[in-house]
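Handover notes (outgoing to incoming on-call)

Open items:
1. ABC transporter permease subunit: sequence verified, structure written out, both below. Nothing else pending on this one.
2. Nothing else urgent.
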Amino acid sequence: MLSYVLKRLLLFIPTLLGVLLVTFLVIQFVPGGPVEQYLAEAKTAGRGGGGFESGGGSYRGNQGVDPKRLEQIKALYGFDKPPHERLFQMLGQFARFDLGKSFFQNKDVWTLILEKLPVSISLGLWTFFISYGVAVPLGVAKAVRAGTRFDLISTLIVLVGYAIPGFVLGVALLVVFGGQLQWFPLRGLTSANWDDLSWGARIIDYLWHIALPVTAMVLGSFAVTAMLTKNAFLEEIRKQYVLTARAKGLGERQVLWKHVFRNALIPIITGLPSAFIGAFFAGSLLIETLFSLDGLGLLGYESVIRRDYPVVLGTLYLFTLIGLVTKLISDLCYVWVDPRVKFD
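ABC transporter permease subunit structure tokens:
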């Protein structure tokens, strides 16, 4: 196992380099970078009259921005250096886990991630625990009662819920429960008077705000997990060792939970690390925008639109590294769950 883990860790290096290199090259050819945005802003302000003053430079009509000021802007964003130097500088920073500093928000990328992380954690963890806590028992019940009216009705409900996009359900929840009935707040993760509330009132206020966005996010993952659990249990129930256990006189409950349960949960458990880590970092842009939640999804979208390259590349590096580690943990879970799996 140690040899296998070391090989996988060494493969992280070319994978990270490949992802960062492709993204860096794409960035070089995408128009509308920070320097171009500055020029466009200066030109627009200059046409409005009076010129565009910034740090001692000005937009001078048809002559454009002062060349000295333009060189200062390029140096500020690091574009005074050739691309290969910027690439190696970026890789050196990432090797020290220095993700750089945002062009526009005057904050370190680490600081921005930590500021946005609580929102994504709140959405992701609730979605994770509700999805697995309800979907797995439901999938087991559907497998045991396969073909019955309960199985058919629950399958219909689950598939209908899966077919509704999360943001569409979110709009409906906002209109009905937030607008017409006014049972839930329309935006934010907490109320404005959060600091003045007691601990019990804070918990209630937080749950009150998080109810609608979590409901909108749960539906898709809930359906996938329930159906996957059902199919895995059905496959195991039909195998020979289950018939043998029943022939020995074991009770149905003992056969199900002692023999079938562990084998049937292999595809579920091996996906747990990815789902759990994804709960921290997989921000939902549409849900966050819809409910005015400032999380990682909104941060990633705004950084791409504004060409905030340190945030784009820094978060990409961090999330890619976390994804690789999570994939390795998922593969190791195969051996923990099923000793028959061998690394060689």
